[in-house]
Structures are given as C-alpha cells and as structure tokens.
Design brief:
Helix content: over 70%
Number of strands: 0
Structural class: mainly alpha
Oligomer: single chain
Number of helices: 10
Strand content: under 5%
Shape: globular
Largest sheet: none
Length: 238
C-alpha cells in the first residue's frame, strides 16, 4: 500500500512539471553560434539598409522579440536605460542638425525642418532595430551560451586567447545589471539619509558609495571566477 501511495504521489508531483517541458520556447533551442552570426549580420544590415527597408526590418525584430518571450526576460531597468540611450542620441542628432541650419543662416521653415526630422527618425529606427536584435539574442540565449559562441567565433583570430574574450563578455553581461542595481540602491539610500545635505555633498556620497560597492563586487566576482575554474581555457570549450 505504501509503495502504491508513493508511486501515486510521485505521479502527482510529476504532472505539473510535464507542461513546462512542453511549453519550452522553440527559440531557446537555437544554437548560440547561429544567433551570434545572425546578430552580427543584422547589425551590419541595420546601418546599410535604405529607409524604405529599415522600418519593416525594425518591425520584424521587434515582433520577434515579443513573440519569442525575450522581452519578458529582460529587466525593466535595462529597457529604461536603452530608452534613455535612444532618446539621447535621437535628440542629439536633431539638436545638432538644427544648430547646423542656424549656423548656415537657413530659416527654420517646414521645407528645412522636414529633412531634419526625417533623418532623426531614420536614426531612431536604426537604434530601435539594434535594440530589438539585442533583446532577442540576450533573451533567447543565456550568458554562458553567448560567451561560448563568442569564444568559438574569435578562435580563428585570437587562437588560444579566445577564452579571455569570452570571460570578459560574461563579466560584462553580469556587471551591467549589477551596476544599475548598485547605483539605484545607492541613490535611494543617499536620498533618504542625507536630505539635509547640499546637492554637491550628496553627489559626492553617491559616487563614493557606488564605487566602494562596485569594488567589493569586483573582488567577489574574481573569487567566484577562480573557485568555479573559469580562469582557464578548458572551461570555455564545448
């Protein structure tokens, strides 16, 4: 009786796990080397395509990032950071083009502002396409797979030192969200504890606290890399 009960319980525990296997995303099974080659080719195309083909290309990668579920795996802080990056460069191009018109003593009329807005829109579309490609690649493949693919791609060029580039890429993918989290927590702590201080003093405390925490995390990450044996070429070979 106990054996039958245990077998029945094991079946009941196994049932919830079965749909998870069936619900696995098809895109997650793609080879990271293929994804990396596609990303490099798409990055080159984004800056070479004419504007007529650029909009459908950006829409394709945006829809692909949504359908694959990659967008849900990216942290909102990273998406906000890229949104600020997009706004900054698009706005900077628009401002510089307007300054160029003023410098040439050209009137700011619809005939002259139209091309400026169109060029800024084209740059924005290119940045959106690049962001969609990056979100799709990072959301579908994890950092380990991307690093191994990166080492494989650089092996004909760097030979025995390709694993160093893969390790650097892994640490970069790890430290970008870590740095954002540290800056956000430090800013919150300084705002709550140092309201009476001046803006200059609070800025100095924010920089000092963030650098101190980043230094500690760097040492922790170094110990983790050494303990897991990631500081040798054998760890970066499939």
């Amino acid at each position: 009786m106990n054996k039958k009960r245990n077998a029945q319980q094991s079946k009941e525990h196994a049932r919830p796990d079965a749909p998870r296997v069936r619900q696995k995303n098809v895109f997650s099974r793609l080879d990271a080397r293929l994804l990396l080659i596609i990303a490099l080719a798409s990055g080159a195309l984004i800056w070479r395509l004419p504007w007529q083909w650029l909009m459908p290309f950006a829409a394709f990668w945006t829809i692909l990032a949504l359908v694959s579920g990659a967008l849900r795996k990216i942290r909102p802080s990273i998406l906000r950071g890229y949104a600020l990056f997009f706004i900054f460069w698009t706005g900077l191009k628009l401002i510089l083009d307007i300054i160029g018109l003023i410098w040439q003593s050209s009137p700011l009329v619809p005939q002259t502002c139209g091309p400026i807005l169109a060029q800024a829109g084209i740059l924005g579309a290119r940045l959106i396409a690049m962001g969609a490609v990056g979100v799709f690649i990072v959301g579908v493949a994890n950092a380990r797979k991307l690093s191994l693919a990166f080492a494989w791609l650089l092996k004909p060029i760097l030979r025995q030192n390709a694993w160093k580039a893969a390790l650097a890429m892994t640490l970069m993918l790890r430290f970008i969200p870590l740095t954002q989290r540290i800056l956000r927590n430090s800013r919150t702590a300084v705002r709550l504890r140092c309201e009476s201080l001046s803006v200059r003093r609070r800025l100095g405390l924010l920089v000092g606290a963030s650098l101190s925490l980043l230094a500690k995390q760097t040492w922790t990450q170094t110990i983790a890399v050494a303990c897991r044996g990631l500081d040798c070429p054998e760890a970066w070979e499939e």
